[in-house]
Design goal:
disordered N terminus
C-alpha cells in the first residue's frame, strides 16, 4: 500500500474491512481515511496530551481559587464535567477536525452476546487480583512515604449508590474507553498489537494520577484492550471497564455501610501496626507476610481467569483472522505529541510524592 511522506492515513482503515468487499468499496474506505494527512499515532498523542493538560489545568485553577469550590466538593458533578467535557468532547472534536472515520477508529462494531458475557466475567474474576495489587502498592507507598492518604472516595461514597454507579462507573466506562481503547489503542497498534496494548494500558494507568492504583488500573486497561482488539468492538472494552468500576463501588458501598468514617480512612500502616502489637509479632515480618499473601491471591485469580481468556480467544479466532495484523513503520517523531501529557502527569506524581512525604 502506498504511503506518502506525511504518513497519509490510508493505512488507518479498519482492519476488519480492509481487503474485503468490492474494489470500489475498498477505494471508498481508503479515500475517506486518506482525507487526513496526519497519521493516527499523532492524533492519539494529541488526544492524550490535550485531555491530560485539561485535567491538570482544572487542579491548578482550583488551587488558585479560580474554579468554584462547589466543583471540587460535589464529586458526582465533577465526574460528569470531567468525563464528558474534558475527555469525550475533546477526543471527538479532534477526530472530527482531522477528518477521521469515527466508526473505524473507535471500532463502533456490534459485539456478539458471548463476547459481551466474557468481557463482563473476566473483570469479576480478576477483581480480587487487582485489589491485591492495589493493597501491595498502598503498603509500599506507606512504608516509603509514611502516609497513604490520597483517597477521595469517602465524599463520593456518601452520595446515593445509583448516582455513584452512573457517574463513576458508567461515564468512565464510556468516555475513557473512547480515548484509550478507541483512539490511543488504534493509533499505537500501528506499531504492533502487543506494543499498542501494553503502551495504551500504561498510559491509562498513569492518566488516573494515583500511584497507589497505577498497577491495578494498568492491568484493567490491558484486559479491556485485549477484549477490544479480539472482538473488534469498543463496546466490549466498555463492558470490562464498567463491570470493574461498578463492582468496586458496590463492594465499597456495602463495606462502608454502618462503619464509622474514621475506620474507613484509617491508614493501612496503622492497621498493620495495631495488628502486630496485638499479635506481639515484628511489624516488618507482618508486612512481608501481608505482601506474600496478597501475591498468592493475585497469582491464584490471574490463573483462574486464564480459561476465560482462552474462551474469548476461541470465540473470536475467526474474527481476528479476518483482518491483517500488519505492523507499519512508524517514525519516532510520530510519538512526540505524547510528551506534553506525560510531562504534566509526571509533575503531578512528583507533587503527590511531596504531599505524602509531608
Amino acid at each position: 500500500m502506498e504511503r506518502d511522506d506525511f504518513g497519509r492515513q490510508a493505512y488507518d482503515v479498519d482492519e476488519s474491512r480492509a481487503g474485503h468487499g468490492s474494489p470500489t468499496e475498498v477505494q471508498t474506505q481508503l479515500g475517506e481515511a486518506g482525507r487526513s494527512r496526519m497519521p493516527l499515532p499523532v492524533i492519539a498523542g494529541i488526544c492524550f496530551s490535550v485531555t491530560a493538560v485539561l485535567f491538570i489545568a482544572v487542579q491548578v485553577l482550583g488551587g488558585f481559587g479560580i474554579i468554584s469550590e462547589t466543583f471540587f466538593t460535589n464529586l458526582p458533578l465533577q465526574l460528569v464535567i470531567l468525563q464528558l467535557g474534558f475527555i469525550l468532547l475533546p477526543t471527538l472534536l479532534i477526530l472530527f477536525a482531522t477528518k477521521q472515520n469515527i466508526k473505524d477508529v473507535l471500532r463502533l462494531n456490534k459485539p456478539r452476546v458471548g463476547e459481551v458475557l466474557i468481557s463482563a466475567a473476566i473483570p469479576i474474576i480478576l477483581f480480587p487480583a487487582m485489589l491485591g495489587l492495589a493493597f501491595i502498592v498502598i503498603l509500599l507507598v506507606g512504608l516509603v512515604f509514611g502516609s497513604t492518604d490520597l483517597s477521595g472516595l469517602d465524599p463520593l461514597m456518601s452520595t446515593n449508590l445509583v448516582v455513584v454507579i452512573l457517574c463513576a462507573a458508567l461515564l468512565p466506562g464510556i468516555c475513557e474507553e473512547v480515548l484509550f481503547r478507541g483512539v490511543v489503542l488504534k493509533g499505537l497498534q500501528k506499531n504492533g498489537v502487543v506494543f499498542g496494548i501494553i503502551m495504551s494500558s500504561v498510559l491509562f494507568g498513569l492518566f488516573h494520577m494515583d500511584p497507589q492504583r497505577f498497577i491495578a488500573q494498568a492491568l484493567l486497561g490491558a484486559v479491556a484492550a485485549i477484549a477490544v482488539y479480539r472482538t473488534n468492538s469498543i463496546f466490549c472494552g466498555m463492558t470490562v471497564h464498567f463491570t470493574n468500576n461498578a463492582l468496586a463501588f458496590l463492594i465499597s458501598g456495602v463495606a462502608a455501610s454502618g462503619v464509622e468514617t474514621e475506620s474507613q480512612t484509617q491508614d493501612i500502616i496503622a492497621i498493620l501496626r495495631e495488628q502486630a502489637d496485638l499479635a506481639q509479632i515484628d511489624f516488618g515480618i507482618l508486612c512481608v507476610s501481608f505482601i506474600l499473601i496478597m501475591l498468592v491471591a493475585v497469582v491464584f485469580f490471574l490463573a483462574l481467569s486464564i480459561p476465560l481468556f482462552l474462551v474469548l480467544f476461541k470465540i473470536t479466532k475467526s474474527k481476528v483472522q479476518q483482518f491483517a495484523n500488519e505492523k507499519f513503520p512508524i517514525r519516532p517523531a510520530h510519538y512526540w505529541v505524547f510528551v506534553p501529557g506525560l510531562l504534566v502527569i509526571i509533575g503531578m506524581y512528583c507533587l503527590m510524592a511531596l504531599y505524602l512525604a509531608g
